[in-house]
Amino acid sequence: MSAKLSVDESRCTGHGRCYTVAPKLLTDDDEGFVTLRGRG
Amino acid sequence: MTEMSETEIMSASGCPVSHTDYTVQRPLFETYELLNAERERGPFLWNDSRPRPFWMITDYQHVLEALQMPDVFSNEVVSALNPEHIFDLLPQQLDPPEHTAQRRVVNRWFAPAAVRRLEPLVLSRCDELIDELRPQGGCDLVSDFAIRFPTDLFLATLNLPISDGAVFLEHVENVFESFAGRGLKQAAISTEWIRGYFDRAIADREQEPQDSETDFISRLLVSELGGEPMPREDIISICYTAMLAGLDTTRSALGYIFHHLALDPELRHRLTAQPELWPKAVEEFLRLYPLVYQDGRLVTRDIDFHGLQLRRGDVVWLGLGSANHDPKKFTDPRTFDLDREQLNHHLSFGAGPHRCLGMHLARHELVIAVTEWHKRIPDYELATTEQLYERGAQLSINRLPLRWQTQGGDTQGGNTQYRGTESR
To answer: Is the whole model's pTM more than 0.95, yes or no?
Structure first.
């Protein structure tokens, strides 16, 4: 069984909590919004 | 505490009544004592110390929940102590969706990536200041270091000349004085000066356009909200708000942190030996010493909030400070504990849509300041036995004289006069 993580980028408000807590999965773009690591 | 009587309740609500006036200067740490005592009286209190009384919400879970309900708790009021606006704060005083739109424009300048780009400047400015102070064998940490550092960085972040720092600071201090409801006239004059300063910065950019990718004010000038350019007054208010939010809090955090470290050599030595622990230590200091210890909100509709009957138009105090010390959330909350669980769950930056815009920058500045300082001045002590005080309304330690051994072996007391602005 594996967990799946997706991000609804339209709802991100750029607080930076998630990529601070899970830096291996998530990272920040130049504007401070979240993006999934290992994608595009 | 003579200001509280255990028996008084507000008859209509059954809530305990608090007469504590949180705007007054107090001996260092007394505010936390009062906040904790009030939380122990109950999750909700009625405070009648100000011209407009307000409900105090004191428990961690309730405070967090309210911060995440912007439709009920509006930012039309942002301080329970000063519910009437003395000056515009943007985007802070807006509610979603207007807040969300404006916040998206400014987020970029305070995002982690922007903070990382600023790092060389933060480091070099920090090192310059410490190298200047080190041979002196002592200083007033508050005026000689803690305020100069963020002021210079604020100006640099906005691409404004660092050399304007000294005169800027005088006016900023006048505004902070008014948080406690004093010196309002002088604060109004200084607010006009600061707004005029930003107005001239805008005019400079209109005459000589700068790159809106790298220049904050230029970016605001080309931003559109709902198809309209941002009003000039709003651009000024955004700059003014960033300045108010960024300078005093960083100065104050450094004051409390260095006070703690001066009195705890064991912790100081551990952190100096293991500098990789500084980010975690700063986070725990942020929890232990909240400076903005209340967020005000205006109730938008009648609601039963966990048994508290709130009416439309009521002012509430969301107790960020008492939440950080709530034993239901943090074990042994008054103790500095580097290994505590959920150490970053503190509310010192608030929560919800208005969570501090500058928090990444603030953390970064604080971590660099303590790291660089202890590389150069690992040992120091308090240079006074006099009582220290904290400003009310938004906490700030008034002065922190430190002394240390210089290579010649002499130590000197911290200065006795305020020289933060003159010596620049």
So the answer is: no
